[in-house]
Write the C-alpha cells for this entry.
Amino acid sequence: MFFVFGFGKQTIKTRWADEVRTCPRCGNTKRWPYKKITYWFTLFFIPILPYQVKYVTVCPICGYFETIDQAAFDAASEEADDSDKPVGVPPRTGMTEVQRRFNQEMATYENQKKDKTEQ
C-alpha cells in the first residue's frame, strides 16, 4: 500500500479593516490586511488536519508583517465589508492596460487595412 502525505499546505483568509497604519520598514501609510494562515497535514494532496494557525497583519507595499491575536482578526472580520478587496482597487477585467491598448491598435490597423483594400 502506498500513501502520499505531506506538511505545509496553507490556506489564507484575508480581511480588510478600516484601520490605516504606517509601516515601520518602508514608511508608507496604507490599510493593512489581517490574515489568518492555516497550515495543513495532507494525505494524497488533500488537506486533512490543521496543525498550525497564525494571525498576522501585512504591509501591502513591502510585505512586512506583525503577528496579531485571534481577537484582533475576529474584530476585523466583524467590521470588514463583504468584499475582501481594499477600497479603490478596480475590478479585474481579465486584461491589462497594455493588452487593451494593443487590441485597440490592432482594431485600428485592421480598419485601415480594410479601407485600403476597398479603394
